[in-house]
From TrEMBL:
Main location: cytoplasm
Enzyme class label: transferase
Role description: Specifically methylates guanosine-37 in various tRNAs.
GO molecular function annotation: tRNA (guanine(37)-N1)-methyltransferase activity
Organism, scientific name: Serinicoccus chungangensis
Pfam families per record: tRNA_m1G_MT
Taxonomic lineage from the root: Bacteria, Bacillati, Actinomycetota, Actinomycetes, Micrococcales
GO cellular component: cytosol
Documented EC number(s): 2.1.1.228
Protein name as it appears in the record: tRNA (guanine-N(1)-)-methyltransferase
Subcellular localization: Cytoplasm
Quaternary state and interactors: Homodimer.
Keyword annotations: Cytoplasm, Methyltransferase, S-adenosyl-L-methionine, Transferase, tRNA processing
Length: 242
């Protein structure tokens, strides 16, 4: 069964890249079944209004609950016998990591992405649907985007490449899983000398043991330099392991 993805947004054209490249291939190969919906299709006024000013005052606009309620009622009940997980992208969520991506790819068969805009969606929409469906709030990291659409693109790409049956992913995923929480080593190809920059000698040596040791050193040095947070976790982990 393909992984079904529904995306509800007021900017369906933002999701056009879902047809491209890796994601497009996953769709063509029948591993992904993507449905993008315009939230305004569930409004009933001539201006197709989806937002209003916040109760209690304050800046900006809040998405009204009624269009979300009708859209999610219809979409979430559209496949008889199946229940989706709702995914709400937002800076206030659990951080989306490789582990979360892997869990979604391996354990879920239907995700409904709820893309908020403006200052957010009326909280009662979450109260209503969290009581009826599993729901995850997921953040890309500690910065603020204008809406969930770009986050959906990032998350769906991270998930799609992990789907069982995605051709070409077997070898590269095994390699990735072997990096054990460290950053990747640097890679080089021909020519051996370019603009005065040389490929490290060890890589030309043909000595597989020395090459593997050099790559591991590079991983450790890079991780310590760029991601001290990952390095601390790696060191804690290697102490815990015998
Ligand atoms: Cl998932 N959504 C929005 N709106 N901003 C974000 C984010 C998500 N992740 C980081 N910033």
């Amino acid at each position: 069964m393909p992984l079904r993805l529904d995306v509800v947004t007021i900017f369906p054209e933002y999701l056009a890249p879902l047809d491209l490249s890796l994601l497009g291939r996953a769709r063509r190969e029948g591993l992904l079944d993507v449905h993008v919906h315009d939230l305004r299709d569930w409004t009933h006024d001539r201006h197709r209004t989806v937002d209003d000013s916040p109760y209690g005052g304050g800046a900006g606009m809040v998405m009204r609950p009624e269009p979300w309620g009708e859209a999610l009622d219809e979409i979430c009940s559209s496949v008889p016998g199946r229940t989706p997980r709702l995914v709400v992208p937002g800076p206030g969520g659990e951080v989306f990591s490789q582990e979360v991506a892997s869990r979604l790819a391996l354990e879920e068969d239907w995700l409904v992405f709820v893309c908020g805009r403006y200052e957010g969606i009326d909280e009662r929409v979450y109260d209503e649907f969290a009581a009826r469906y599993p729901l995850s709030v997921l953040s890309l990291g500690d910065y603020v985007l204008n809406g969930g659409e770009v986050a959906v693109l990032a998350m769906t790409e991270a998930v799609a490449r992990l789907l069982p049956g995605m051709v070409g992913n077997e070898a590269s995923l095994v390699e990735e899983s072997h990096t054990g929480g460290l950053l990747e080593y640097p890679v080089y190809t021909k020519p051996a000398s370019w603009r005065g920059h040389e490929v490290p000698e060890v890589l030309l040596s043909g000595h597989h043991g020395r090459i593997a040791a050099w790559r591991q050193e590079q991983r450790l040095a890079r991780t310590a330099q760029r991601r001290p947070d990952l390095m601390a976790r790696y060191e804690a982990g290697s102490e815990a392991r015998p």
